């Protein structure tokens, strides 16, 4: 298959796979390295046929555009057609990323997702997705070139965030 050709979609089955890219910061000078890494990794997965659509997640942070819009722009630069990109542009947390993406996923009859986020963040993102009854797996971009201190800080943050999210999810409806 040509690297820029869209993957074949099995229309008869009613089943779709999606790649869900979780947002990261947009800085004053543009998308952060983390956001760029995630978006490019999602594009590689799409070109490899891992999903028929991509959901770019993330609302407005400190600087425009929204994280979803920045992801979508990078995806288009990587050869993803606009009709394969959906934007969830309201979320500001991991829980909201998944919860606000649900209507888009359901509208497109998605039954399996690949969540693109950092390896340190993956377990929490998967916990949220599975809470909402999504068949999910995580795919993380390489951390090559990342600062060790930043990766350590992320890992330590997740050690505290994972149990807090487990508690938060107990109060969340599974049918949002």
Report on this structure.
The protein is 41% helix and 18% strand. The protein is an alpha/beta fold. It has one domain (14-170): 3-Layer(aba) Sandwich (Rossmann fold), CATH 3.40.50.620. The radius of gyration is 15 Å and the shape is globular. Strands 5-4-1-6-7 form a five-stranded parallel sheet. A two-stranded antiparallel ribbon has the order 2-3. It is built from five helices and seven strands.
What are the main properties of this structure?
disordered N terminus, 5 helices, 41% helix, alpha/beta, two-stranded antiparallel sheet, Rossmann fold, 176 residues, Rossmann-like_a/b/a_fold, five-stranded parallel β-sheet, 18% strand
For the record, the CATH architecture stands as: 3-Layer(aba) Sandwich
Rg, please?
15 Å
* Inertia-based shape: globular
- Arithmetic mean of pLDDT: 88
């Amino acid at each position: 298959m040509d690297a820029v050709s869209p993957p074949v979609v099995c229309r008869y089955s009613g089943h779709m796979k999606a790649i869900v890219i979780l947002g990261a910061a947009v800085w004053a000078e543009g998308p952060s390295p983390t956001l760029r890494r995630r978006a490019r990794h999602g594009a590689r997965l799409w070109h490899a046929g891992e999903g028929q659509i991509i959901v770019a997640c993330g609302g407005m942070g400190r600087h425009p555009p929204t994280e979803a819009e920045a992801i979508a722009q990078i995806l288009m630069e990587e050869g993803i057609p606009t009709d394969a990109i959906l934007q969830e542009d309201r979320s500001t947390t991991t829980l909201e990323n998944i919860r606000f993406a649900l209507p888009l996923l359901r509208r497109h009859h998605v039954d399996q997702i690949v969540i693109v986020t950092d390896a340190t963040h993956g377990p929490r993102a998967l916990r949220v997705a599975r809470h909402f009854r999504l068949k999910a797996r995580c795919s993380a971009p390489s951390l090559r070139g990342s600062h060790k201190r930043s990766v350590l800080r992320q890992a330590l943050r997740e050690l505290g965030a994972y149990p807090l999210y487990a508690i938060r999810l107990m109060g969340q409806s599974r049918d949002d």
